Amino acid sequence: MHRAPTRASARRVCEHSSVGWSACQPNSSDAISVRVDSWTWAVRLFKTRSQAATACRSGHVRVNGTSAKAAQQVKAGDEVRVRVSGIERIVVVVKPITKRVSAVLAADCLQDNSPPPPPPELIASIPRRDRGAADRPNASDATSRSCAASSPDCYLETG
Q1: Please, which pLDDT band fits residue 62 given cuts at 50, 70 and 90?
Q2: Are the C-beta atoms of residues 16 and 24 closer than 8 Å to each other?
Q3: 60-67 — which CB contacts under 8 Å span 24+ positions?
Q4: In this structure, what are the phi and psi dihedrals at residue 67, rounded to the nearest 5 degrees?
Q5: Whole-model pTM?
Q6: CA 47 – CA 3 distance, rounded (Å)
Q7: Can you name the residues that pair with 110 across neighbouring β-strands?
């Protein structure tokens, strides 16, 4: 009579011991493909799976150059482009996993081809306008311009 392997014996014979037992369940590491939202969460590109799915819905995730829905399948060799906080990350799927693993093990599941971030000097040199600065037109400025353009008889009391 043949008995099914127990969890302890399966752990001993698991060929994915570097990923751990939780990621080495049937249809996880051996799977041909996994969902893109699940994979981006598992390799720590997003903090939560909900954030990963929202990014897919918003068009911030692209697989092989096309916009991806959350349920799109990715497999080894696919290029995934993710925009997080205005920074685009370009990664290649090395190992499709569905369970979140440590950062050290997650690094083995992807190949990061992202360009280096811009130097801090360049970021600091970009001019930024303060919110609510005085040089912005307000409602009364817009009214005075439209009144002056519409009729020479128009006058506004300022005071």
Answers
A1: very high
A2: yes
A3: 60/84, 61/36, 61/37, 63/36
A4: -60, 140
A5: 0.59
A6: 40
A7: 93
Element (H, E) at 93: strand 87-93
**For residues 106-121, b (16+ Cβ closer than 10 Å) or e, as one string?**
beebbeeeeeeeeeee
**Sheet with 79-84, edge to edge strand ranges:** 66-67, 61-63, 79-84, 87-93, 110-112
Q: Which two tokens stand for residue 57?
A: 């819905």
* Whole-number pLDDT of residue 87: 84
The residues with which 66 forms a beta bridge, in sequence order, are: 63
pLDDT for the residue numbered 149: 57
Instruction: Write out pLDDT tens, residues 124-144.
Output: 777 776 766 666 666 776 666
